[in-house]
Design brief:
Structural class of chain A: alpha+beta
Number of strands of chain A: 13
Largest interface: A-B, 78 and 79 residues
Number of helices of chain A: 15
Order of helices and strands of chain A: HHEEEHEEEEEHHEEEHEEHHHHHHHHH
Number of domains of chain B: 3
Structural class of chain B: alpha/beta
CATH topology of the largest domain in chain A: MetI-like fold
Strand content of chain B: 15-25%
Radius of gyration of chain B: 23 Å
Number of strands of chain B: 11
Shape of chain A: flat
Largest sheet of chain B: 7 strands, mixed
Number of domains of chain A: 3
Oligomer: heterodimer
Order of helices and strands of chain B: HEHEHEHEEHEHEHEEEHEHHH
CATH superfamily of the largest domain in chain B: Periplasmic binding protein-like II
CATH class of the largest domain in chain A: Mainly Alpha
CATH architecture of the largest domain in chain B: 3-Layer(aba) Sandwich
């Protein structure tokens, strides 16, 4: 017996089992987390059925069923398992004060899923659930009753949404451009005053163009006002399930559905429309509703800027350490230091970024190049450049280590062959060794991207904001605005999850944002992996 | 009265299947008090003052507005900024909310024109401001917040006095309650609650709410070590939702269906009051506070037009509606008029 155990241990089968278990546990954990996020996040887009409950006191409750639980300590002889209660999303926040409500099932007399109820997604106050009483145009009556009202309302909402797009375009692009020019001229004027130049012709020219721009602005604003008035032209009188009325301008409606009357395919269609609108729209209501496009954009752009900064820096450092430096005590100490740097908490990097980049470098840049904008800081406050550079510092050890590994895997014969053929050291390095080490470098980049995308703490100190007024990339020269603050998916999760007042209603948004963050990481990694595989194919002979 | 369980079960099965099986054993229909809050609170209409003036645009307002300060006011500032930008599409507003203590340095350095704070400026901060400019920063109250004490939705406790809240949260018990409120039995509950432990949730020490609660309820006493300090107001509410014995404090705007708000009385034996708009403005609810914006205004000089218009917007009908939407209480009209006159 003992010999058999000895033989078993000696064969190494046990070890294989250990390894297998470790892998299985990792896969299980990762897929478990992903599954949790997906279950909670993906359901958000589905048009849920609306249930109308009639209670024993005659009142009614209309909403989406969100959960059920056993009331603790409610077991009686009649209910050996305990009584239950259900949680409904009742919406109508402006009428009820809360979006959710618990109802004891024993108080429910009847429950129904009427096909005529509508779910309205509003630009303010969250969803409305109820029925239509009347559609009006100003004081005029257009349609009354739930059925006629619905028929009249649907095209009006499409029309209002088209108008909204026009308003957004006018506000963001047209007026945005005028404002941008006005701001630049104003800064030029201030700069002239600061420099003590009082060339009257130049000032007069600038002021004339400023006035022309302001006139143009005024014209655009007038158009904007007429558009906005047209948005509020039609209104709809809604009634909630107990008969309380609410008048709502059609311009405040994002969309309206009759979820109980929808077929499966219609629901699937709505699902993808909802998903796309979250991906593509701007946030509303202090980020708790609407889309997360600026956050996705900010995250990706920050990671890209970081990659551009971290790769040359890390690769050069690794080349020096591996190819040029004399291997000895100092290099060993530096290697240990680099490895330790990877273990420094990210908030420490954040504090460093704030102190060094934002205050020292940014503050100096401001006094040297942007004195006309002071005291409002340009670079002397957090921005996408400083955040990206801070993250580049945070991830540079990963790139150095991976590049060194890649370099050490380049066969010695390659170097010697190259040198023997008459190439100088730098030539053989650029033409022979670098291409062979590229897959290793890209592995480093993949790890760096994965780490950087998930970091939030250093960003909070160096440039992430809850709501950024403009994207850091637009059509104004120099196109990439390094000084602008930006939004980030990780911070969005923190903000919506911990700071939003209506945490119950915002919870799905947290999961959706998490899901999209994970998807962004996967996409960024996949593209880096694709590039690496392409490289590998190209330099197959390299033993990397 | 015997219910009609089968019908309920069937309809709900169609709706989502949550009731499946359970609804079939629905028997007696009883009237039992439910955890949902009184609907009357919601009625935003009751807070709306017909005397609020609608905001009217003025010409010549443009530029950048920076706001740095409180995280409690972060949402409110964002909502105000969204609304203000509808009136003036040429105004750019940047909002940073990392805590009340970040507001004074930003105002002193001039990096922000608005400094939202959930507490008063401390004397030290005010002195620094005065040393730089020669006058004090101007305090502008913008909304009323009632700090609510939350318990789990199943907790039947009817009312707590300030002494009892102090005895639950504090180890020093400066308000003089005789016993430590360690179990819910000490607060007068019986049955399964008799020996249920009181589990405490609070904010982290960087928060203005932490300081306000410590000053007002604990009379500057010390928190118990077992208070679970949370990174945000919403997480206090989440904690109490999940923990049946939980009790925590947070702004009234953070109320959800998973928690109950306890009425409070100023001293033991007195009437308890809910943190409603009426009770907060009448002063009967003991934990009401103002939320402020600090601005830099030289005496005798008008405010910069952009700042002035932003404050006017905050005091307008639109601005105060946003306060209600974010879950806080609007200012009394008298105060608004007084403030507008001073501006």
């Amino acid at each position: 017996m003992a010999t058999r155990i000895k033989k078993f241990l000696g064969s190494g089968t046990l070890f294989v089992w250990f390894c297998g278990t470790a892998v299985a546990a990792s896969v299980l954990l990762v897929s478990g987390v992903l599954l949790l996020i997906m279950i909670n996040g993906l359901g958000f887009f589905w048009p849920h059925a609306l249930v109308e409950l009639t209670l024993t006191d005659g009142t009614r409750v209309l909403g989406e069923l969100k959960g059920e639980e056993v009331i603790p300590h409610s077991e009686t002889t009649a209910f050996p398992e305990g009584k239950t209660r259900v949680k409904l999303k009742i919406g109508n926040r402006d009428l009820y004060g809360l979006d959710f409500r618990w109802v004891d099932t024993e108080r429910v007399v009847s429950a129904d899923t009427p096909t005529d109820v509508i779910a309205v997604e509003r630009r303010e106050w969250g969803n409305f659930y109820g029925r239509i009483r009347e559609v009006r145009r100003g004081g005029e009556h257009v349609a009354s009753g739930n059925e006629d009202g619905w028929t009249a309302l649907v095209p009006l909402i499409d029309h209002a949404n088209a108008l909204h797009d026009d308003v957004a375009h006018l506000q963001r692009d047209v007026i945005g451009d005028v404002n941008y020019d006005i701001e630049r001229i104003r800064l030029k004027l201030r700069a002239l005053a600061l420099q003590g130049q009082d060339d009257p012709v130049r000032i007069a020219v600038l002021e004339a163009s400023l006035q022309a721009l302001e006139r143009r602005y005024q014209e655009h604003v007038d158009v904007l006002r007429t558009l906005s008035d047209r948005l509020n032209e039609y209104s709809v009188v809604l009634i909630e399930t107990n008969g309380r009325e609410l008048s709502l301008p059609v311009g405040h409606i994002v969309n309206a559905l009759r979820p109980n009357a929808m077929g499966l395919f219609e629901k699937i269609g709505t699902y993808f429309i909802n998903f796309w609108s979250v991906l593509s729209q701007e946030p509303r209501e202090a980020n708790t509703e609407g889309g997360i496009f600026p956050a996705i954009f900010g995250t990706v752009m920050m990671v890209l800027i970081m990659s551009v900064a971290v790769v040359p820096f890390g690769v050069l450092a690794a080349f020096y350490l591996r190819e040029y430096a004399r291997q000895g005590l100092i290099v060993r100490v530096i290697r240990v230091a680099v490895n330790n740097l990877a273990g420094v908490p990210s908030i420490v990097f954040g504090v460093f970024g704030l102190g060094f980049f934002v205050y020292a470098v940014g503050g100096t840049l401001d006094t040297l190049f942007y004195p006309e904008a002071l005291p409002t800081p340009t670079f002397g406050t957090g921005g996408i450049l400083w955040a990206s550079l801070t993250l580049a510092l945070l991830t540079v050890p990963v790139v150095i280590v991976a590049t060194e590994e890649g370099l050490s895997a380049v066969p010695r014969e390659y170097r010697e062959g190259s040198l023997a053929l008459g190439a100088t050291k730098i030539e053989s390095m650029i033409r022979v060794i670098l291409p062979c080490a590229l897959p290793g470098i890209l592995t480093g980049l993949i790890l760096a991207v994965a780490r950087a995308t998930g970091e939030v703490a250093p960003l909070m100190l160096t440039g992430v904001v809850k709501l950024a007024p403009a994207l850091p990339l637009d059509h104004h020269f120099p196109f990439i605005h390094f000084e602008r603050k930006f939004m980030h998916l990780g911070f969005h999760i923190f903000d919506v999850g911990f700071q939003s007042p209506n945490v119950e209603a915002a919870k799905p948004m947290v999961y959706v944002t998490t899901l999209i963050l994970v998807m962004v990481v996967i996409l960024l990694n996949l593209s880096a992996v694709a590039i690496r595989n392409h490289m590998r194919k190209k330099f197959r002979s390299a033993a990397v | 009265m015997v219910g009609r369980p089968l019908f309920v079960g069937r309809a709900l099965d169609r709706a989502g299947g949550f009731f499946r099986g359970r609804a079939l054993c629905l028997g007696l229909v009883l009237f039992v008090g439910m955890g949902s809050g009184p609907l009357s609170w919601a009625a935003s209409d009751s807070m709306v003052d017909p005397e609020w003036k609608a905001y009217s645009r003025v010409s010549g307002v443009s530029g950048n507005l920076n706001s740095i300060g409180s995280d409690t006011l972060n949402n409110l500032m964002t909502l105000w900024a969204e609304g203000f930008r509808k009136e003036y599409p040429n105004v750019k507003i940047q909002i940073e909310g990392k805590g009340s203590s970040t507001a004074p340095p930003a105002l002193i350095e001039g990096t922000a024109q608005l400094g939202p704070m959930s507490r008063h400026m401390k004397a030290k901060e005010m002195d620094k401001f005065e040393a730089k400019f020669g006058y004090k920063a101007t305090t502008v109250p913008v909304a009323v917040d009632a700090l609510a004490v939350y318990v789990n939705k199943d907790n039947p406790v009817a009312c707590l006095s300030m002494e009892e809240v102090d005895a639950a949260f504090s180890k020093t018990r400066r308000r003089g309650h005789s016993v430590n409120l360690g179990t819910w039995g000490k607060a007068g509950l019986d049955g399964v609650w008799q020996n249920a432990r009181v589990s405490l949730y609070g904010r982290n020490s960087a928060s203005g709410t932490y300081g306000f609660f410590k000053k007002t309820v604990l009379k500057k006493g010390d928190y118990k070590d077992e208070v679970k300090e949370q990174p945000g107001s919403a997480s206090v509410v989440q904690g109490v939702t999940e923990d049946r014995g939980g009790i925590g404090y947070s702004g009234i705007g953070y109320r959800t269906s998973g928690v109950r708000v306890i009425p409070l009385s100023a001293t033991k034996g007195e009437t308890c009051y809910d943190p409603t708009f009426g009770n907060a403005s009448a002063g009967t609810y003991p934990l009401a506070r103002f939320l402020y914006l600090y601005v830099n205004k030289a005496p005798g000089k008008p405010l910069p037009p952009l700042v002035r218009e932003f404050l006017t917007y905050v005091y307008s009908r639109q601005g105060q509606h946003i306060v209600i939407k974010d879950g806080y209480f609007p200012l009394p009209q008298r105060l608004i008029q007084q403030q507008l006159a001073e501006m």
